[in-house]
Amino acid sequence: MTLFASQSQSNDRIYTVSSLNAQVRLILENEMGIVWLVGELSNFSMPVSGHWYFTLKDARAQVKCAMFKGSNRHVSFKPSNGNQVLVKARLSIYEPRGDYQLIIESMQPEGDGRLQQQFEQLKMTLAAEGLFAQALKKPLPQHPQRVGIITSKTGAALHDILQVLKRRDPSLAVVIYPTMVQGDGAAISIAQAIGRANSRQECDILIVGRGGGSLEDLWAFNEEIVARTIAASQIPIVSAVGHEVDVTIADFVADMRAPTPSAAAELISRDNSTQADKIKHKQQQLHHAIQCYLSEQKHHINQLNHRLERQHPQLRLNQQQQHLDEITRRLQQIMLKKIQIQQQRITQNQYKLSLHSPQQRLQHNKTALINAKHRLLDAMDRKLLNANHKLALAAEKLDTVSPLATLSRGYSITRDDQGSLIRHCDQVKAGDQLITTVTDGKIYTTVNDQYSQ
Question: Which residues pair with 32 in a beta bridge?
Fold first, then answer.
């Protein structure tokens, strides 16, 4: 008799649940990187740890979020349920529960945040293309003969520029290219005015700008079409948008940035302090170059910080803190629930006990129970004794007629492969398969020859 065995082997890796969750977390954090999204705050909570936990949702979906205290201390407003916000986040997973979640790095109200995000994205795109490079800046003419002004014909910026030019250099010719500087269509209007000035080639230098305002008011000068038109201009351009604290994409692309429209007029015009103008011009160039360099370095530092944050032990500490907050919350809920249940039971039992005083009845029933227990035990003992005796007799009778007893004395039973009992030699022939039963198992044999007497 030959036995055959086979066993399939697999080379697939077998994960534990915790190692799988850890692997998924690393994939999410390393592959997806930083994401921006807009949503409504709900289920907002601030435990004593200082971290924030909340849900971001829209009309059809929601996602759990955590913002650790190292990040939320930079939020400039007080968030609450129902706020529409723009967040910068990393995708991650809360390993103990396997929950997909977002780790929030920054949060802003949706309106301002969305514009700021668009500003940063376009700024990084154009910087990567080299549009801010100092090598592309065209030098400003030292003694321009004609200056073009691209701004609103009714704005205060035009009045300020003209006043400065009149005071400093009345002989300087001025060409005004009126344009929209705010609202729908303003960016296209500005780009068209720059293109018109370049096609005419009647000016030595252009001032493009407007007076101060909010981020939304100045947004036309953050549009990509304006930035690319300024970069493509053959005429040197001075950007003069808003106040000194206002910075637009146009400032980075222009050949020179002036902090205000008046400052732009002073920058390009001549007066008795020519040497001072040259120094100021150089300062402006240096300032602009430093700004571009700092912008590029800031982008590089942000990339390095992001890589460092993915490997920083603070991430693990934050996760452990989140896990501790979760366990604390669940423990509090369980304790409160158990206390409530026990209080309810005590109240119910006290009420039932007040309705009945069962001491005497309990004593009577206890005595009756003890007597019944003794009778039951006696009856069970007698029943078991009789049953054991009958079982012993039946086993003795069964053993006398059992074929197993016969087999134990050296006899065996032989059957063919169809199960038929073999009593005579002529029932088998050479090559038949036989099964012989003995007292401790079965023997499988093949008939080589037969012999009958």
Answer: none
C-alpha distance from residue 390 to each of 77, 158, 395, 404 (Å): 90, 123, 9, 21
**β-sheet bridge partners, residue 39:** 85
- In angstroms, the Cα distances linking 264 to 207, 280, 367 are 7, 11, 111
Pairing status of strand 205-210 against strand 173-178: unpaired
Give the pLDDT score at 421. Answer: 85
Q: What is the per-residue pLDDT across 59-87, written as a single tens digit (0 to 9) for each?
A: 889 999 999 998 999 888 889 888 888 88
Provide the 3-class DSSP secondary structure of residue 441.
strand
Q: In whole angstroms, what is the distance from residue 46 CA to residue 329 CA?
A: 12
Residue 339: pLDDT over 80: yes
Write out the two tokens for 57.
Answer: 């949702």
Residue 238: predicted pLDDT: 95
The CA distance from 153 to 415, in Å, is 117
C-beta atoms surrounding 335 within 10 Å:
10
Q: Which pair of structure tokens corresponds to residue 223? A: 């549009």
- Report the DSSP pairing between strands 237-241 and 256-257: parallel
Q: For residues 108 and 166, what is the distance between their CA atoms, to the nearest angstrom?
A: 45
Tokens, residue 373:
């227990």
| SS3 (DSSP) at 259 | coil
Closest CA to 57 of 32, 35, 81: 81
CA angle 325, 327, 328 (to 5 degrees): 65
451: nearest Cα among 429, 435, 433, 436: 429
CB atoms inside a 10 Å sphere around CB 422? 15
CA-nearest of 23, 47, 154, 169 to 98 is: 23
pLDDT confidence band for 173 (50 / 70 / 90):
very high
Is pLDDT at 6 greater than 60 in this prediction? no
Backbone angles phi and psi of 22, in degrees to 5: -65, -40
Query: Does residue 234 or residue 305 have the better pLDDT?
Result: 234
Structure confidence at residue 3 (pLDDT): 37
Q: Which of 336-340, 346-350, 381-385 has the lowest mean pLDDT?
A: 346-350
Is the model's pTM score more than 0.90?
A: no
- Tens of pLDDT along 122-140? 888 888 888 889 888 999 9
Q: Quick one: 39 exposed, middle or buried, by C-beta within 10 A (0-12, 13-18, 19+)?
A: buried
Q: Give me the residue label for tokens 């994205």.
A: 121
Q: Map tokens 């059809």 to a residue.
A: 60
